[in-house]
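[recover] target loaded
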Protein backbone atom coordinates (compact mmCIF):
# COMPACT_ATOMS: atom_id res chain seq x y z
CA UNK A 1 0.00 0.00 0.00
CA UNK A 2 1.31 3.46 -0.85
CA UNK A 3 2.14 5.70 2.10
CA UNK A 4 2.86 9.20 0.88
CA UNK A 5 3.62 12.27 2.95
CA UNK A 6 3.34 15.76 1.46
CA UNK A 7 4.90 18.53 3.53
CA UNK A 8 2.73 21.65 3.30
CA UNK A 9 4.66 23.62 5.90
CA UNK A 10 7.96 22.93 7.64
CA UNK A 11 8.63 26.17 9.51
CA UNK A 12 8.23 27.25 13.14
CA UNK A 13 6.09 30.15 14.35
CA UNK A 14 6.45 32.59 11.42
CA UNK A 15 5.20 31.79 7.90
CA UNK A 16 7.99 33.55 6.05
CA UNK A 17 10.57 32.78 3.39
CA UNK A 18 10.41 29.34 1.80
CA UNK A 19 8.79 27.77 4.86
CA UNK A 20 5.15 28.06 5.86
CA UNK A 21 4.02 26.75 9.27
CA UNK A 22 3.18 23.16 10.20
CA UNK A 23 0.88 21.03 8.07
CA UNK A 24 1.27 17.71 6.28
CA UNK A 25 -1.05 15.50 4.25
CA UNK A 26 -0.66 11.74 4.54
CA UNK A 27 -2.03 9.55 1.77
CA UNK A 28 -2.32 5.97 3.01
CA UNK A 29 -3.58 3.75 0.23
CA UNK A 30 -5.79 6.57 -1.06
CA UNK A 31 -7.06 7.65 2.36
CA UNK A 32 -6.03 11.24 3.11
CA UNK A 33 -5.35 12.67 6.54
CA UNK A 34 -4.29 16.24 7.38
CA UNK A 35 -1.82 16.61 10.25
CA UNK A 36 -1.90 20.14 11.70
CA UNK A 37 -3.38 23.11 9.90
CA UNK A 38 -1.40 26.36 9.99
CA UNK A 39 -2.70 29.43 8.21
CA UNK A 40 -1.26 28.68 4.75
CA UNK A 41 -2.59 25.14 4.65
CA UNK A 42 -5.46 25.46 2.17
CA UNK A 43 -3.20 27.33 -0.21
CA UNK A 44 -0.56 24.65 -0.03
CA UNK A 45 -3.15 21.87 -0.46
CA UNK A 46 -4.16 23.46 -3.77
CA UNK A 47 -0.57 24.13 -4.82
CA UNK A 48 0.20 20.44 -4.34
CA UNK A 49 -2.96 19.34 -6.26
CA UNK A 50 -4.27 17.40 -3.27
CA UNK A 51 -8.00 18.10 -3.79
CA UNK A 52 -9.41 19.91 -0.77
CA UNK A 53 -12.63 17.90 -0.56
CA UNK A 54 -10.80 14.58 -0.54
CA UNK A 55 -9.58 15.38 2.98
CA UNK A 56 -12.09 14.25 5.58
CA UNK A 57 -9.86 13.61 8.60
CA UNK A 58 -7.91 16.33 10.39
CA UNK A 59 -5.60 15.75 13.36
CA UNK A 60 -4.31 18.76 15.32
CA UNK A 61 -1.30 18.50 17.67
CA UNK A 62 -1.99 21.66 19.71
CA UNK A 63 -3.72 25.01 19.51
CA UNK A 64 -0.74 27.29 18.90
CA UNK A 65 -1.45 29.39 15.82
CA UNK A 66 1.35 27.90 13.74
CA UNK A 67 -0.48 24.55 13.91
CA UNK A 68 -4.15 25.53 14.14
CA UNK A 69 -5.03 28.97 12.71
CA UNK A 70 -5.69 27.58 9.23
CA UNK A 71 -8.60 25.41 10.40
CA UNK A 72 -11.50 27.94 10.33
CA UNK A 73 -10.47 29.12 6.86
CA UNK A 74 -10.08 25.59 5.55
CA UNK A 75 -13.52 24.53 6.85
CA UNK A 76 -15.09 27.70 5.48
CA UNK A 77 -13.63 27.07 2.02
CA UNK A 78 -14.82 23.46 2.09
CA UNK A 79 -18.33 24.79 2.81
CA UNK A 80 -18.17 27.44 0.07
CA UNK A 81 -17.11 24.74 -2.39
CA UNK A 82 -20.25 22.76 -1.59
CA UNK A 83 -19.08 20.09 0.79
CA UNK A 84 -21.76 17.86 2.32
CA UNK A 85 -19.56 14.99 3.58
CA UNK A 86 -18.63 15.09 7.29
CA UNK A 87 -15.16 16.07 8.50
CA UNK A 88 -13.63 14.28 11.49
CA UNK A 89 -11.38 16.41 13.69
CA UNK A 90 -9.20 15.13 16.55
CA UNK A 91 -7.71 18.03 18.51
CA UNK A 92 -6.86 19.07 22.06
CA UNK A 93 -9.77 20.15 24.23
CA UNK A 94 -10.80 23.72 23.44
CA UNK A 95 -10.51 23.43 19.65
CA UNK A 96 -14.22 22.83 19.21
CA UNK A 97 -15.12 25.91 21.25
CA UNK A 98 -12.68 28.07 19.26
CA UNK A 99 -14.12 26.90 15.93
CA UNK A 100 -17.78 27.11 16.99
CA UNK A 101 -17.27 30.55 18.56
CA UNK A 102 -15.41 31.82 15.50
CA UNK A 103 -18.21 30.74 13.19
CA UNK A 104 -20.94 32.03 15.52
CA UNK A 105 -19.37 35.47 16.06
CA UNK A 106 -18.45 36.02 12.43
CA UNK A 107 -21.78 34.92 10.96
CA UNK A 108 -20.18 32.08 9.01
CA UNK A 109 -21.20 28.47 9.17
CA UNK A 110 -20.36 25.11 7.71
CA UNK A 111 -23.08 23.13 5.96
CA UNK A 112 -21.61 19.72 6.71
CA UNK A 113 -21.23 17.76 9.96
CA UNK A 114 -18.11 18.20 12.08
CA UNK A 115 -17.32 15.09 14.09
CA UNK A 116 -15.11 15.98 17.04
CA UNK A 117 -12.76 13.92 19.15
CA UNK A 118 -11.29 16.26 21.74
CA UNK A 119 -8.16 14.98 23.46
CA UNK A 120 -7.78 15.69 27.16
CA UNK A 121 -5.39 13.22 28.77
CA UNK A 122 -2.01 13.68 30.39
CA UNK A 123 -0.42 10.27 30.18
CA UNK A 124 -0.44 7.04 28.23
CA UNK A 125 -1.55 6.57 24.67
CA UNK A 126 -5.05 6.73 23.21
CA UNK A 127 -6.39 5.68 19.83
CA UNK A 128 -8.03 8.76 18.31
CA UNK A 129 -8.81 7.41 14.86
CA UNK A 130 -9.10 4.10 13.04
CA UNK A 131 -10.42 3.01 9.68
CA UNK A 132 -9.74 0.17 7.21
CA UNK A 133 -6.39 1.65 6.19
CA UNK A 134 -4.71 2.87 9.37
CA UNK A 135 -4.73 3.62 13.06
CA UNK A 136 -3.77 6.90 14.74
CA UNK A 137 -2.62 6.77 18.37
CA UNK A 138 -2.03 9.99 20.31
CA UNK A 139 0.43 10.49 23.16
CA UNK A 140 0.92 13.62 25.29
CA UNK A 141 4.13 15.59 24.84
CA UNK A 142 5.71 18.30 26.98
CA UNK A 143 5.13 21.77 25.48
CA UNK A 144 3.82 25.11 26.78
CA UNK A 145 0.17 24.15 26.10
CA UNK A 146 -1.51 20.70 25.97
CA UNK A 147 0.11 18.99 22.99
CA UNK A 148 -0.02 15.52 21.44
CA UNK A 149 2.21 13.48 19.18
CA UNK A 150 0.81 10.83 16.84
CA UNK A 151 1.81 7.35 15.81
CA UNK A 152 0.19 6.48 12.48
CA UNK A 153 0.34 2.85 11.40
CA UNK A 154 -0.88 1.05 8.31
CA UNK A 155 -3.22 -1.83 8.98
CA UNK A 156 -1.80 -5.24 8.16
CA UNK A 157 -5.03 -6.32 6.47
CA UNK A 158 -4.52 -3.64 3.81
CA UNK A 159 -0.94 -4.52 2.95
CA UNK A 160 -0.17 -7.00 0.16
CA UNK A 161 1.37 -10.18 1.53
CA UNK A 162 4.70 -11.15 -0.02
CA UNK A 163 4.81 -14.12 -2.39
CA UNK A 164 5.08 -17.59 -0.88
CA UNK A 165 8.62 -18.76 -0.29
CA UNK A 166 9.94 -22.23 -1.26
CA UNK A 167 8.89 -23.90 1.94
CA UNK A 168 5.39 -22.47 1.53
CA UNK A 169 5.82 -20.26 4.59
CA UNK A 170 5.35 -16.55 4.22
CA UNK A 171 6.19 -13.61 6.39
CA UNK A 172 3.69 -11.32 7.99
CA UNK A 173 2.92 -8.31 5.82
CA UNK A 174 5.28 -5.40 6.40
CA UNK A 175 3.28 -2.47 7.73
CA UNK A 176 4.80 0.98 7.96
CA UNK A 177 4.66 3.38 10.88
CA UNK A 178 5.08 7.15 10.81
CA UNK A 179 5.48 9.16 14.02
CA UNK A 180 4.80 12.91 14.10
CA UNK A 181 6.07 14.77 17.16
CA UNK A 182 5.84 18.55 16.97
CA UNK A 183 6.41 20.70 19.29
CA UNK A 184 8.14 19.25 22.34
CA UNK A 185 10.70 19.78 25.05
CA UNK A 186 13.47 17.19 25.31
CA UNK A 187 12.13 14.21 27.21
CA UNK A 188 13.23 10.60 27.16
CA UNK A 189 9.76 9.60 28.32
CA UNK A 190 8.79 9.99 24.65
CA UNK A 191 10.96 7.06 23.60
CA UNK A 192 8.34 4.26 23.88
CA UNK A 193 6.04 6.20 21.54
CA UNK A 194 8.76 6.92 18.98
CA UNK A 195 10.26 3.47 19.12
CA UNK A 196 10.72 1.53 15.89
CA UNK A 197 9.12 4.12 13.58
CA UNK A 198 9.99 3.76 9.90
CA UNK A 199 10.06 7.54 9.73
CA UNK A 200 10.04 9.90 12.71
CA UNK A 201 9.18 13.57 12.14
CA UNK A 202 10.59 15.58 15.03
CA UNK A 203 10.53 19.27 15.53
CA UNK A 204 13.93 20.95 15.30
CA UNK A 205 13.42 24.59 16.10
CA UNK A 206 16.92 25.54 17.22
CA UNK A 207 20.59 24.75 16.67
CA UNK A 208 22.56 23.37 19.63
CA UNK A 209 23.94 26.83 20.46
CA UNK A 210 20.42 27.94 21.50
CA UNK A 211 19.80 25.08 23.94
CA UNK A 212 18.77 27.52 26.67
CA UNK A 213 16.10 29.08 24.47
CA UNK A 214 14.91 25.62 23.43
CA UNK A 215 14.53 24.63 27.08
CA UNK A 216 12.73 27.86 27.99
CA UNK A 217 10.25 27.60 25.08
CA UNK A 218 9.93 23.81 25.28
CA UNK A 219 11.38 23.01 21.89
CA UNK A 220 14.18 20.75 20.66
CA UNK A 221 17.65 21.50 19.40
CA UNK A 222 18.99 19.59 16.39
CA UNK A 223 21.28 17.51 18.60
CA UNK A 224 18.42 16.59 20.93
CA UNK A 225 16.25 15.54 17.98
CA UNK A 226 19.05 13.31 16.67
CA UNK A 227 19.62 11.82 20.12
CA UNK A 228 15.93 10.94 20.57
CA UNK A 229 15.86 9.29 17.12
CA UNK A 230 18.95 7.22 17.95
CA UNK A 231 17.69 6.18 21.38
CA UNK A 232 14.26 5.26 19.99
CA UNK A 233 15.78 3.05 17.29
CA UNK A 234 13.84 4.61 14.41
CA UNK A 235 14.84 3.88 10.82
CA UNK A 236 14.90 7.46 9.55
CA UNK A 237 14.52 10.96 11.02
CA UNK A 238 12.94 13.98 9.36
CA UNK A 239 13.54 17.39 10.94
CA UNK A 240 10.73 19.93 10.67
CA UNK A 241 9.43 23.07 12.48
CA UNK A 242 12.61 24.93 11.50
CA UNK A 243 13.01 28.42 12.97
CA UNK A 244 12.94 31.25 10.40
CA UNK A 245 16.37 32.32 11.65
CA UNK A 246 17.89 29.38 9.71
CA UNK A 247 17.57 30.23 6.02
CA UNK A 248 19.72 27.23 5.18
CA UNK A 249 19.21 24.20 7.42
CA UNK A 250 22.71 22.76 6.88
CA UNK A 251 23.85 23.47 10.43
CA UNK A 252 20.77 21.79 11.92
CA UNK A 253 21.23 18.75 9.69
CA UNK A 254 24.90 18.49 10.59
CA UNK A 255 24.20 18.70 14.33
CA UNK A 256 21.39 16.11 14.19
CA UNK A 257 23.51 13.76 12.07
CA UNK A 258 26.26 13.79 14.70
CA UNK A 259 23.74 11.86 16.81
CA UNK A 260 21.79 9.98 14.13
CA UNK A 261 23.05 9.68 10.59
CA UNK A 262 19.93 8.70 8.67
CA UNK A 263 18.41 12.18 8.87
CA UNK A 264 17.04 14.72 6.39
CA UNK A 265 15.36 18.11 6.69
CA UNK A 266 11.76 18.60 5.55
CA UNK A 267 11.02 21.29 2.98
CA UNK A 268 7.70 22.78 1.93
CA UNK A 269 6.07 20.88 -0.96
CA UNK A 270 8.38 17.91 -0.45
CA UNK A 271 6.82 14.49 -1.13
CA UNK A 272 8.06 11.43 0.65
CA UNK A 273 7.16 7.85 -0.09
CA UNK A 274 7.45 5.80 3.04
CA UNK A 275 8.87 2.36 2.22
CA UNK A 276 9.80 -0.61 4.32
CA UNK A 277 13.46 -1.61 4.64
CA UNK A 278 14.81 1.02 2.29
CA UNK A 279 15.34 4.73 2.32
CA UNK A 280 12.27 6.88 1.73
CA UNK A 281 12.03 8.23 -1.78
CA UNK A 282 12.04 12.00 -1.70
CA UNK A 283 10.74 14.17 -4.52
CA UNK A 284 11.51 17.84 -4.24
CA UNK A 285 9.46 19.93 -6.66
CA UNK A 286 11.56 22.23 -8.81
CA UNK A 287 9.16 25.14 -8.33
CA UNK A 288 9.00 26.80 -4.92
CA UNK A 289 6.73 29.46 -3.50
ZN1 LIG B 1 4.93 25.31 16.57
ZN1 LIG C 1 3.77 25.15 19.85
Amino acid sequence: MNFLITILGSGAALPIGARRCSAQVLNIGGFKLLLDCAESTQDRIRYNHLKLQSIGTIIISHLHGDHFFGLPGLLSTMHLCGRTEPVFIAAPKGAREVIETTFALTGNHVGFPLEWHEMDFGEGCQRVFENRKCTVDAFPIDHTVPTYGFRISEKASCVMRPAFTNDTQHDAPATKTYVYCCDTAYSESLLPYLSGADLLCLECTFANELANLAEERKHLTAGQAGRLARMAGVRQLMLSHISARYREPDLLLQQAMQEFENTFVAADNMRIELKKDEASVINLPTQKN
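[recover] notes: Residues 162-169 have pLDDT under 50 and may be disordered.
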